[in-house]
UniProtKB/TrEMBL annotation:
Organism for this UniProt entry: Tanacetum coccineum
Taxonomic lineage: Eukaryota, Viridiplantae, Streptophyta, Embryophyta, Tracheophyta
Listed name of the protein: Zinc finger, CCHC-type
PANTHER family: GAG-POL-RELATED RETROTRANSPOSON, RNA-DIRECTED DNA POLYMERASE
Length: 163
């Protein structure tokens, strides 16, 4: 039988198992960046964490988030707790997709109002990692029990149609 070892590094994040739980850290990455910019002499300081964030991580609420890029640079990003309760991961993804869609529409309108920006404006691409959610988004009909999800589905369909 093979000896199975627990991972101690995943995706550049170091994992330490302690009696009270698991500690994850990227201090090695920070040290590498400090060295790269010749700032190893910096002194560490504590960064207080908002207790609401800790409670949220321990709770079961869903988070929505997005990042929009323009010319290779970030122009808008967000990560926040969803304001409504959903009964499935797919419904949660629909809520997140609708929120990202609203932001995309706002950004598109902003860019449209900039006189020097070339027209027509190319469609904004939104990527979602849920095949089921994307199938639901492209579906012509929303079959669901929640009215607020039906409204979000209609908004997503409208944004897809407009590009």
């Amino acid at each position: 039988m093979k000896d199975i070892r627990e991972a101690d590094v995943i995706l550049g994040i170091k994992i330490k198992r302690e009696v009270k739980g698991i500690v994850i850290t990227q201090s090695h990455y920070i040290e590498k960046i400090l060295k790269k910019f010749n700032r190893e002499d910096c002194s560490p300081v504590n960064t207080p964490m908002d207790p609401d964030q800790i409670n949220h991580v321990e709770g079961s609420s869903s988070m929505s988030g997005w990042v929009f890029l323009l010319g290779g640079g970030v122009i808008s990003w967000a990560s926040k707790k969803q304001k409504c309760i959903t009964s499935s991961t797919m419904e949660s993804e629909v809520v997140a997709l609708a929120a990202a869609g609203k932001e995309a529409e706002w950004l598109r309108n902003l860019i449209h109002d900039i006189p020097i920006w070339p027209k027509p404006i190319t469609p904004i691409s939104i990527r979602c990692d849920s095949v089921l959610t994307m199938a639901k988004a492209y579906s012509q009909v929303y079959i669901g029990k929640s009215r607020y999800l039906g409204v979000r589905h209609s908004m997503i369909r409208k944004l897809i149609t407009k590009g």
